[in-house]
Amino acid sequence: MITFFEAALSELSIHRIGNKAQDEFYILSEASMHIQDEVLKNLLIQYFLSPYEKVNEIFRFTHPNDDLNLNEIYHFVTQIFESGEKFHENSMQLAKYLYEVSNHPKIKAGELYVAYFENVQIEGELHDAIGIFKSETKETYLKVYPEQAGFKLSYEEEAININKLDKGCIIFNTEKEEGYKVAVIDQTNRSAEAVYWKDEFLKLRVRNDNYNQTNNVLGVYKSFVTDKLDQEYDISKADKIDLLNKSMKYFKEKESFDMDEFSQEVIGNKEGIESFKNYKKSYEEEFDTPIADSFDISGAAVKKQARVFKSVLKLDKNFHIYIHGDKELIEKGFDDDKSMNFYKVYFKEEE
Known about the structure:
The protein has nine helices and 17 strands. It has helices at 38-49, 72-82, 87-101, 195-202, 210-232, 237-253, 259-267, 270-287, 299-306; strands spanning 2-3, 8-17, 26-28, 59-61, 110-122, 125-135, 139-147, 150-159, 167-172, 181-186, 204-206, 256-258, 294-296, 312-315, 319-322, 330-335, 340-345. Strands 1, 2, 3, 5, 6, 9 and 10 form a seven-stranded antiparallel sheet that branches. A hairpin with a 2-residue loop joins strand 7 (139-147) and strand 8 (150-159). Helix 2 (72-82) runs antiparallel to helix 3 (87-101) and helix 5 (210-232) runs antiparallel to helix 6.
């Protein structure tokens, strides 16, 4: 969890980054800014940091050659952490490098902000942090203010909405040897050209901790139940929902995950267990993401996945049945006279 109620913005550099593929250029500022206006400083902290309050997934810098020093962003931010006097110099290097990877024709031009923060909290610890943010989306705002006996109306174009951060990352000055702790946001575009921010510019990999282990197992299991089982077994939607509910119950009640225990308690079928383990292995190989057979369960990851684990049985456009408990209390059948499927539901009390 990331919080910023104790955070202070100590230095800021702003540059303009064009789209290299469109023959646009970059504009570098001559010096950094030390903002004295407390209202402006608080607005900037809100703009830069508030989107990260809901971010749980933490990344690390990486490089295809496994040498972190070859990662350009890792190199530049390390220079800043080691010597504050090099802040603006390295912010310019960051701007130049972002320009070099901005070579897809659909990447939008915008301002690049490089900020140095003190006392940003992540996972209960305070650290200095470097923020790299890019604003691409501009909006028009109306301004109303009193004048003589009435009001006057005007507008401002090409303004920035401080509640909508387009792209950003925060690098925390901790765990340097492992690639730092990095939180990232990219709100503007999730299509192919958007990968330049996280994959080409930052070169990040997910930190393989309990949060991500929990998130990955639940994600893989959900895909297995909703997609893979149909290919191998004749299974009803009610049975699928029951399997998903059992898995969520397991993760909510247990403190730690054990693959064999989970397989027996949730799947309970020898062939199904073998199929799930093979599916998990294929996922690990395809995405180069190993999943441990045992780890401590992350409550935050369970809460996140619970939002997308659906327990709704949709019947045409007439009915929705929410299945939360014993699947044995619902039966499926077929009415020959009406030539339609039906469900029979058993209950003791109506609430």
